């Protein structure tokens, strides 16, 4: 049984949809691998940046906890 023929939504080329193909079902292999190579814009952080983000998150959690569980008298 042959594989179904699909049309890529990015480049409009026809391709065979194979079961173990990496990427998306509506994109050809070339377009799927080109997007997978992008790192997503993530940046490396040093220890000071991680510490400041962790402290901000801790303060945010404490504020939410106080808002949710304080007793109104």
Give a brief description:
The protein is mostly helical and about 70 residues long.
What does this structure look like?
With 73 residues, this protein is mainly alpha-helical. It has a domain at 5-36. It has 2 helices and 2 strands. Strands 1-2 form a two-stranded antiparallel ribbon. β1 (5-7) and β2 (14-16) form a beta hairpin. It is elongated and about 65 Å long.
Spatial shape: elongated
What's the alpha carbon Rg, rounded to whole Å? 24 Å
Main structural class? mainly alpha
Q: Helix segment count?
A: 2
Q: Strand order of the main beta sheet, please?
A: 1-2
First CA to last CA: what distance?
A: 72 Å
Biggest sheet details: 2 strands, antiparallel
User: Proportion of β residues?
Assistant: 5-15%
- The percentage helix is 40-55%
Mean pLDDT: 83
What is the β-strand count? 2
Which short descriptors sum up this protein?
mainly alpha; single chain; 73 residues; two-stranded antiparallel ribbon
List the SSEs and their pairings.
Blueprint: E1 5-7, E2 14-16, H1 29-36, H2 47-69
Antiparallel strand pairs: 1-2
């Amino acid at each position: 049984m042959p594989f179904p023929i699909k049309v890529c939504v990015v480049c409009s080329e026809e391709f065979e949809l194979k079961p173990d193909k990496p990427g998306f079902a509506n994109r050809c292999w070339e377009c799927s691998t080109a997007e997978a190579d992008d790192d997503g814009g993530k940046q490396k952080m040093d220890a000071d940046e991680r510490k400041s983000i962790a402290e901000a998150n801790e303060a945010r959690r404490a504020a939410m906890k106080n808002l949710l569980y304080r007793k109104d008298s």
